[in-house]
Fold each of these.
Amino acid sequence: MSVADAVQEAPTKSRTERIVNDFAIQVATVNGSGSQTANLVLLRSIFQMGVPVSGKNMFPSNIAGLPTWYTIRASAKGYISRKKEVDFLVAMNVETAKEDVLTLPPGAAALYDEPLKLNELRNDVVFYPVPFDKLINPITTDAKLRRLVRNMIYDGVLSKLLSIDMGQMEKALRKQMGKKEKAIALNMGALKAGYDYAEANLPKLDPFVVEPMNKTDGLILIEGNAAAAIGCMMAGVTFVGWYPITPSSSLCESLIDYLKKYRRDPETGKATYAVIQAEDEIAALGMVLGAGWMGARSMTSTAGPGLSLMGEFTGLGYYVEVPAVIFDVQRVGPSTGLPTRTAQQDILSAAVLSHGDTKHPLLLPASVNECYTMAMDAFDLAERLQTPIFVMTDLDLGMNTWMSPTFEYPTKPLDRGKRLDAAKLKELENDWGRYRDVDGDGIAYRTVPGDGMPSYFARGSGHNEKAQYSERADDYANNLDRLARKFDTARTLVPKPEIEVVRGAKIGVIGYGTTHWAIVESRDELRNESKIETSYLRLRAYPFTKEVFDFINTHDRVYLIEQNRDAQMLSLLKMECNVEQFAKLRSILHYVGLPIDGRSVTEELVKQERGQ
Amino acid sequence: MATEAPVQPPAPGKKINRIGLEPVAYRGSKTTLCAGCGHNAITERIIDSFYELGIDPTQVIKLSGIGCSSKAPAYFLNSAHGFNSVHGRMPSVGTGAVVANRKMIAIGISGDGDTGAIGIGQFVHLMRRNLPIVYIIEDNGCYGLTKGQFSPTADLGSTLKTGVINDLPPIDTCALAIELGASFVARSFSGDPKQLKAILKAALSHKGTSMIDVISPCVTFNDHEGSTKSYAYVKEHDEPLSEVSFVPFFEDITVEYEAGTTKEVTLHNGGRVVLSKLSEDYQPTDKMSAIRVLHETMARGEYATGVIYIEPDKTDFVDMLGMVDEPLASLPQSKTRPGKQALDEIMESFR
């Protein structure tokens, strides 16, 4: 597989018509070259013109010098999953330029640095040579600044070629740079240089244009990690233990910024929270459990490798019954692959993380808004169920920029779960057992140190209802059965799936997380191109609720679509299905290190349907 | 660290402490360790120390990792909450717990395997943070619960029962703790109740990490000839650096010692550690001096015991975090969920 193959797939068709608000721009650069500002300005300008956009960064596990691709998709129809084909390439990386061009579909356009002479590579692509060095020279004499500001030139060229309003470009630039007037002036200079050059030298030859719409009114642009951080703060988090790991670091880093600003005691100015950067993920979760045991609203965020390290503590949290919230911003590797690429590959391991008989609730946000709301759900569920709760996002959702309606202020008060108090103790006739199921839902009443209620000894070894050490067969089995009962209670408390039943549709589609956006697009393609009607169920949590099984029962074939090799969610689902349900389940998998796209789903589903 | 409580007048004929509790209020479950285990002696001294200082046991949290030593928190202070966590990971659980409720007094019990091997990483970072906790290593130089394998504190040349010789140098947890930033570092011997109790009481009165390595012979697997952690060996090679006395803040005692050989250190809560019969060139408040004495005694095959290093005024981790005085764990929603205006402002920043 070549470098370019890593982010582009084979071309499929050629186009000559005028194409408005429906194309993908891919900027190929070298990481560390400062292209992020230019890319976000481009994204934001299109957004400000009222056109639905999405931006996806495909970056290496490196700080500077390796190839990076940023894809911006404009879609009048509002499709925001990755588009399989690249329509407009900005080739800034010498190393990958040739292959980037060779993998374009016929009819695409390519803007490139003139000395690269990419136009000699093929004749079915529109080429726009731009002499970047010549244009940047008059802007600044500082070599370092030249390298950074250079990227704004392609924004200027694209502004002209794609009819992106220069006023919007400037507005987006100001948004991006804040109050740094000197930097703004410098970047504006480069932007204008690009625009003027295009106006004077580059006649429009490609079909792609941006035209104003009103589809982004009232929306914001935000990354999932920032959204989750806001949710955590609104959930009243008081303790954060974390260890830096891409792609989750920005969740805790955003949270730290928000907490510093909004969570100081108004009278004393002191913090109503603590954030500790731990020595590793094991310690991070250990701290979270210590704080949770103590009664704090406690969380950590991590990615797959950190999750592996948290295994033993997760089991302890499950068995000792300590509330904890764990965000897993899923990626691959590095033990098992591509460290900075998105995936849904931790589902199975998170669901049963640890040794022994354990299972854990997973929340499955698909949008930035759900990163926000599910953060709050997670803290409530953790305290209600007295157990670790995982929020399974992914790199695509966590680190990329997404459109969203503004988040709503929570109206539901915090649920602090079942805590023993004097009244309850009296009701129990002073005979309280930390692990005694008095309500029949598997959830016992807990006390925390310092609350004036009776103490107990938390231990991962065998214990009876009174939390006393026990190796008795009945004590152990009863406790495990109660924990299973508690998991059944979780089934009734976790967010229910979102279901769209289409009358007469024999095919059901199940998806979760960011896969949702590809499914939305694919269902339209299936309907319009292949006359295949599908019903859709989007999972929002594990354990599976009753609705999931009803959905399978009412369809002939059900495709579970996910971004991993081993059909991880499907495997979990199969564990709970009866024979008839089991026989209906099929799988569509995507695991190439790129976010899933609608076209791939459509092609695979049609193929499986035809083979049937 | 001692909890303030009104002094109760003693009831006639009843032994109680200054907060009116009887010694039995400080006891725990019956020990399940081997008869004669050094750990049991340490448990007794812990009970004595809490009782004599008059600390309210319901305001204490007891933490441990995994191993024989880590069973100990079940054997003292029944009315305190306890957390027997994961092998080698008590420091992180303790860190979260202490930060979540800064009002509680924390005591962590670990072993030499739990601290020196699987838990060395977390131990290092706990010491470095100077977390307010009394961290006790019940050090027998072997893994008791898995039947006697060497631990990382086993001395060079020490032998197992089977005759296997340890050919790796030991980790000196005291030297390490001093180097890393712990502000109260001591070593003692489970067979020296007087010294151990004085050290424990001082440690409980110190604000910051109090790390105490207590040599505690394993009577079942490491008490034979050839072991350097046997009762006989330790008794023979115990080299007290000084005589340790502790005067709690609520006792007004003036102790007079021969000039030049005594050092008194006043702790955060007003309690005083008095170290007498000190050798003239040893300064327990000087890091270099403390580390030198550890190296010198180790080279002679001796255990330097007593308060080895003390830095009474060092800022602890909880203070560093700049938190509100109220425990984080009990903050109400009104203090932890920002108002709608905050969310509106944040949303505006993303438009």
Amino acid sequence: MHDPVIALEDVRVTYRGGFLGGTGFDALRGVSLDVAAGETVGLVGESGSGKTTLARVCLGLLAPTAGQMRFAGQPFGKLRQRRGQLSVVLQHPEWALNPRLRCGRSVEEPLVLIGVPAAERRARVAAILDQVGLDPGFAARLPGQLSGGQRQRIAIARALITSPRFVVFDEAVSALDVSVQAQALNLIRDLQAEHGFGALFISHDLAATRYVSDRIAVMLEGQIVEEGPAARFYQTPEHPYTRALMAAV
Amino acid sequence: MSRAVVDINDLVIGYDTGTRQVRALDGVDLTVFADETLAIVGESGSGKTTLGMAAGRLLPPEAQVLGGRITVCGVEVTQADDPTLRQLRHDRLGFVFQNPTSALDPTMRISRQVALAMGGRPGSQAIAELLARAELSEPDRILHAFPHELSGGMAQRVVIAMAIARNPELLIADEPTASLDASIRARVMTTLGKLRAESAASLVILSHDLSLIARHADRVAVMYGGRIVELGPAAAVLDAPAHPYTRALLAAAAGNEEPGERLRPIPGTPPVLAGRAEACAFAPRCLFREARCEAERPEARAFAGRDVVCHRAEAVIASDAPPRQEVR
């Protein structure tokens, strides 16, 4: 058995507030969660439940106040050492893409950072654009000349070009129209089958999450209140809060 | 048949982008009756927001009415002068927009904003009662709050309270729950529905969320390419769609699939119209198209308890499942 890509063990995060940190706010209150290679874990919950804090811990952007985060069986170490190994796709592709950079350049940029030679970079950009279903001609366009769905494909291509071992999708399909959302969800499933990355899919939309995930964790007030295979979320989940979420599907 | 609150006849609206003209509405016919909830569904660019805003003539200056009429509560909106329009908007229309935090003035306490919407000089007791009708708990605390101190769901309830303050005859809600969490969407929609029923107003919901519509609307109008392509009772349209676009939308939405089943996105992209569509706008993406669809503009016709704009409606409704794409 391989080590999970991400292993969280009783992670707590306290945001300090007030003078000298007099009053603290516990954003995560003892969360344990594993994400294996090739697996998508869905994370659902309302605003303020700690979803994004958990994502920041998984990406190494935030050190837990207590508890442990291990990346592929090892302590996380410095962000710099993890370059190209983890990645994130955000809700609005506008936030991820520089509006003045041609899309091809945006997609290529992560490879420059990890020092891949130019000739190889060009080949990999062409390959990843093909995988996300875009014509190579899109490399020469600016983000403003693309539709929302196409921009999100560029953002996904940029996130995956370094073949990361772990990807966070933070509300990655929430801003898209129904039919474009379906394309993006299918794309995420196909790319994962091909690349085998572990993924954390964060959303408040249970319908989309259960479609794309293998397992789902439900968060409420900084804790995981239910966790189980996605198939269970097509039937009757156990926790009353999950049932309330199901009613909205 | 009950009284018509909104009557739209062959409405054509274009946007002048400077270099070219883009047609947002391409001949819309629609009647909204008193005391009903009508949902207008469509993707971005289908024209649903243009249609909703046209009812209050709230369109940006580059929008031009190129033809047709739109009558709201007996007022011909495209011709009306400013005082008539202002009175119509103030007394008989209520708007609920997508993002409650940008619909509220960030520099004004809630009590003052709500008082302005109510008109006159209402006392804080009256304002608190209005907020309580919109099912806000602790209305007295909210009165003194600024918009940034409220959660999204609370802010949207304040916007709803302002929309119903003058007991309007028509409420227009543009994606009322899109910016809210899934867990409170249903409750906000229930509040909106309850308030509509209390005042016997008409509610028009503009949305792309089909599952939301299924529970809250009496009738559904599906928009594509600036036209209403299917219009009928919610149960009929959503259970047995007669237009291929309605059918494709339902197949693409996550939520109805079986575990392991693959969603079927609609191939291609929505059209951007430069002028009147002389054929079916959906034909290039349609699985049911035949030669006629690319040559002849379909007109609305009554079929299977609804109005549908499609040459192939009989074939669409008869096929029990859309052609499946391979499941991997």
